[in-house]
Design brief:
By secondary structure, this protein is α+β, with helices and mostly antiparallel strands. Among the domains are: 1-61, Orthogonal Bundle (434 Repressor (Amino-terminal Domain)), CATH 1.10.260.40; 329-355, no CATH class. It is built from 17 helices and 4 strands. The structure holds zinc ion. Zinc ion (ZN) is lined by residues 72, 74, 202, 206, 220, 223.
């Protein structure tokens, strides 16, 4: 058990056997034997190793060990194996703490994920993808309004959302998998909010569409279409833009971006998909985006980041209800007990004033 976790933590830290061995004054052979489970480190050694690898010693001793299943990375051939390894270690660690926290509750504090029964069994056209997004919006009580907090929406419907801050995520586009039967989606912490949201909606698309798509539809493209439809419903596009347009103002794209939390380019595609503009107008705008360098970074204010608060909230709730004590809470939150005690009392936070 310790061995497997040690290997994972070492990979997550990006250290070679030798680098770790040097840092803790042990031989490579010893580390290798620990990782293979042929030898068990003493508690003093484990403490040193934990320090170097930036994990708490409890990490090595945790009894549950989860496997990520059905990992689906958004296709980016350029994401290196090392980065993917690190991401997967971070996700496993976060997911394990989630599952442990849930197991400490006498009754599950979050609902189980279930797809709407009204979803068509077979989806074989783009119109049906739009319909699936519409059904999901209705079932989840979202109406046709902008979705203010997509992470919260997913979490309250039983999807585990993991926000990862591993280095080197520039080329990582998100991931869907499942762990212990719970679907999880992963996004990078530091991306602009509109990019995070598109990824979250795309990954939700996999959950909704995966077993339903007809062979003529490419799943990646279908999930992109679903994501656009979920974030910015066709009906809303037409309501704002009109049914037919031969010219657009770029500020219109900017305003819709900020209202619905989808990139300007995403808005452009939605306008085209709603049949408001022709393919050729869409293409000329696309070329304009490239020319202006907006495909790398869109102009103006960024859409706010999304973050997750549910896990932390449930740790505190468990503490308040007496399911766990302070040290378990600190362990779950991966911070020291001293820091936890201070955060618990809101120390260091200043009172709001009118000034
Ligand atoms: Zn995908």
């Amino acid at each position: 058990m310790i061995g497997e976790r040690l290997l994972r933590a070492r990979k997550a830290a990006g250290l070679s056997l030798r680098a770790l061995a040097d840092a803790v004054d042990l031989s490579q052979t010893a580390i290798n034997k620990y990782e293979k489970g042929e030898l068990t480190p003493s508690s003093g050694q484990l403490l040193k190793i934990a320090k170097v690898l930036g994990v708490r010693t409890e990490y090595f001793l945790r009894s549950t060990s989860l496997q990520l299943e059905g990992i689906e990375y958004r296709k980016r051939a350029s994401t290196s194996k090392t980065i993917l390894d690190r991401i997967s270690v971070d996700i496993t660690d976060q997911a394990e703490r989630w599952i442990e926290l849930l197991s400490l509750y006498p009754q599950p504090p979050v609902s189980k994920f279930a797809l709407p029964e009204r979803l068509p069994e077979r989806i074989s056209s783009e119109e049906e993808i739009e319909l699936a997004a519409e059904i999901l919006r209705q079932e989840w009580g979202l109406g046709t309004n902008p979705i203010p907090d997509l992470i919260d929406t997913l979490e309250s419907h039983g999807i585990m959302v993991i926000v990862t801050a591993v280095d080197g995520l520039e080329k990582f586009d998100g991931l869907a998998a499942s762990v212990a039967g719970i679907p999880i989606v992963v996004v990078a912490k530091n991306w602009p909010g509109d990019r995070q949201r598109f990824t979250l909606a795309h990954e939700l698309g996999h959950l909704v569409l995966h077993d339903r798509l007809a062979e003529n539809l490419d799943e990646e493209k279908a999930c992109n279409r679903f994501a656009g439809a979920l974030l910015l419903p066709q009906g809303e596009v037409v309501k704002v833009m009109g049914t037919h347009r031969t010219a657009l103002e770029v500020r219109e794209l900017y305003m819709l971006k900020h209202e619905f939390g989808i990139s300007m380019l995403g808005v452009l595609f939605r306008i085209k998909q709603a049949g408001v503009i022709t393919e050729s107008i869409c293409r000329s705008w696309f070329m304009e985006f490239s020319k202006q360098g907006w495909r790398k970074g869109e102009p103006g204010d960024q859409y706010a980041h999304e973050d997750t608060y549910l896990f932390q909230g449930l740790v505190y709730r468990a503490l308040a209800e007496g399911y766990i004590g302070e040290s378990k809470a600190a362990e779950l939150l991966k911070i020291s007990l001293t820091r936890f005690k201070s955060e618990r009392k809101l120390e260091g936070l200043h009172a709001a004033t009118d000034q």
